[in-house]
Amino acid sequence: MDFSFSEEQRLLRESVRTLMDRHAPPDMVARHDRERLYPYELHKAWAEAGLIALPFSEKHGGLGGSVIDMAIVAEEIAYTNADFFMAYAGNVFCGLNIERKGTEEQKAEFLPRLITGDLRMAICISEADAGSDVGAMRTVARKDGDVWRVNGHKLWCTGAGAKNTLLNVYLKTDTTVHHSKGMSLFLIDNDAPGVDMRKLDMLGRGATGTYEIRFDEVAVTPDRIVGGVNGGWDCILAGLQVERITSAAGNCGAARAVVDLAANYARERKQFGRPIGSNQAIAHMLADMRTEVEAARMLMWRAAWKVAQGEEALADISMAKLYSSETYVKVANMGMQIFGAYGYSMEFPMQRHYRDARSATIAAGSSQMLRNLIARSMGLKVQ
Q1: The pLDDT value given to residue 157
Q2: Which of 56, 153, 294, 298 is found 20 to 30 A from 255 (Cα to Cα)?
Q3: What would the 3-class secondary structure string for 53-106 be?
Q4: Which GO terms describe its molecular function (predicted)?
């Protein structure tokens, strides 16, 4: 097992770090968080640098990057801001599903615009009574002549309200069969007639935004159905591995940033005439934080390596996503303690990590669902 990076991958990491330092300095990050502004200029910079094109095949205008390349990018973007990482990842995950399951006409229509940054995409799965239980969704589409009519309600849709966004909506096209047989993936413009959107007031990650969406008789033509009618379940499954590895990488990047912020503060902050980092209690907290983050990174890199080798990695991916998300929450809490009242102040970045981290154990597979998957991989019949 070789965890070393190629020279191209080392240059990729450096270039992403440089891009983020230039286009997302601390004052920009703080302003977008405070004012809940979508990072349009940063999104364009990602596109111009080829970061959105990275995972797509050269045939469709991409760069043919690997899952390891994706993890490198995710870690570096999230090091600056976990919220901005959500803006990046949502676009890529949806686009990859179109590349895997879409028609050639869909690929030709949407992927070039996505790659150039002129189009954004957002995934819409969850509902009021359908979170981890995807089969409980009630949003439906019915055939009406030459079009389908969509009615329903979606929640927790990340980035759905950004300009020029194509909603990737999972819904039921056949309610008489099991959800794996009667679900479809529809592509709906976020400004289409009948689409009503509301930005939700969430604890964190307000720049990319989390939305509630209602669909009232929204007309969708057959050419906007990915994977065919009732082929939505295959679309969900097709993207899970890359999504969760990349999410784990984002958690690791954000957690690394927490450790660096806390360590720098502990070296500079003086109490009783000496840096607080010279106190064993603080030093040991930081040592534990760094150790747990590096352990999370090793789980993540092992999972990414196995996928890149074409090996079965569901359990590895689940463990990486579980541990990285819970580690981000844990170190953000410890970082707040080290910063003391300064961490509680909105003028300092630790409070943002504390808020943003809390969603990491919920999104892209909750900790409880991931533990079920891990237990099942051990031969346990978990209900």
Answers
A1: 96
A2: 56
A3: CCCCCHHHCCCCCCHHHHHHHHHHHHHHCHHHHHHHHHHHHHHHHHHHHCCHHH
A4: acyl-CoA dehydrogenase activity; flavin adenine dinucleotide binding
